[in-house]
Amino acid sequence: MEFLANDQGMLLPLLLSCASIVFLFMFFTRVKPGSPPSPLRLPIIGHIHHMSKRPHRALQKLAQKYGPLMLVKVGPVPFYIVSSAKLAREISKSEDTSIPARPRLKAANVLFPGHRDLIFSPYGHFWRHARKICVNELLSLKRVLSFHHIREQEVAKMGEVLRCNKPSSPVNLGTMFVKLADTIVRKAVLGEKYGGDECSKLVGELARNAADLVSGPCLGDYFPMLSWFDTLTGHTAKAKRTSQGWNKFLDQVIDEHQARPGHAVARLDDAKDFVDILLQLQKEDTVGLELTRENIKSILVDMFVGSIDTSAAIMEWIMAELAKHPTIMKKVQEEIRRVVGDKKKIDEQDFQHMEYYQCVIKESLRLHGPSTMARQTSSATTLGGFDIPGDTTVFINLWAIQRDPMLWEKPLEFKPERFLNTSHGFKGQDDKYFPFGMGKRICPGSQFALSEVEYAIANLLCWFDWKLPEGVKPEDLDMHDTFALVTRKESPLYLVPSLHNAV
């Protein structure tokens, strides 16, 4: 009887413990009526335990279980994750009303005070006119073509460096592509004067820091009560230092442009850089927007943050996929060399005759384009039949959509042929292929990046034959990526160039 009494005395605490566990489980797995499915979350940290250093991959895996729209919390902050092309298209159609803006980030507040740039400005009067300036004046097809001499000059320099490379010596193409993209952007945005090596280190560091700040983790964005911790980690100081660096440098650039006699207005149209154009628009005051110096500097920073890493990463991924698939590389080289013929260089009009080469670029972007798009709801709305609160971030997992087996046959395979005789383009109007985004927030610099990538890679494939370093087999090539504004190759790509006999 004494044993039974003791046993009953232990039973009550045990039952209370079990009840507490059940209550906590139900509390942290509960979903509000009308909300999309959500994985099990933990107290305080939410769903962080489901994430990894490659969140686009972790979110794809969760979507396979919880569906194309799910709720994920990072700390107390909710995020709605979209992993289907149908829902992504639904968002693009609602941009004028409920899901028009970018999320507000601490780093962006420091880098772009008042969000007076293009990338992070809220949807409204300023954003519409700033985008119009970028699309019609800075990044129009005519303007992009006017920078052909810069692309030609810098790609020729890269070719000379490769010709002087020690035979059978591997070349770090990742580093080479970053330098190429950086120089082309600096010359187009700031002018020929700023294309030298003395400017490269400063601008390169500022651009990398800015890109890392707006794409990397910031505790205050997810745990507002712990914003002070960003001061201890150095995140806040880095953002302020980067902002001050950009301001000091661009103030000097603008002053030097304005000091020229007649500055922007006196220059030939084809010789104008982005600073010239923006200063001219500021002077003429015809764009429906007061362009302040701060606006101009913010738009210029956008050009660097959104273009250097994107172009360099795309070029590296194309060469990596071709190195991993030597038969495809041989086929595309034969096409390029056949079109070029006896000419010593490629003309941009040649690309319309390189159908398979265009397919290679499209397939590379399908597999390795930008990983996510972020939107901020301005008011409560519905998506896919579920309720989405106002002032909430919606992430579109492009990486997952471009690998959706419901959309693509053998989606993990590199098959350029899938784009032959199709209408899939880069303008975001396709039902399932939109590597640069879609809707009004589609990347306005896609044509600038594609022109650079198209010209550089075609010449490298025409001038040189390429192989992996000795001892490395195609199937062993490391294709792991990292998460950022654009999915970068985690380990640098080393290939061995040899001058093609016909060159």
From TrEMBL:
Gene3D superfamilies in UniProt: Cytochrome P450
One Pfam entry name: p450
Which cofactors must be present for this protein to function? Answer: heme
InterPro entries per the record? Answer: Cyt_P450, Cyt_P450_CS, Cyt_P450_E_grp-I, Cyt_P450_sf
Annotated binding of heme, by residue: C443
Membrane-spanning residues: 12-31
Domain of life assignment: Eukaryota
Swiss-Prot/TrEMBL keywords: Heme, Iron, Membrane, Metal-binding, Monooxygenase, Oxidoreductase, Transmembrane, Transmembrane helix
Tell me the GO molecular function terms: heme binding; iron ion binding; monooxygenase activity; oxidoreductase activity, acting on paired donors, with incorporation or reduction of molecular oxygen
In the record, the note on similarity to other proteins reads: Belongs to the cytochrome P450 family.
Recorded protein name is Cytochrome P450
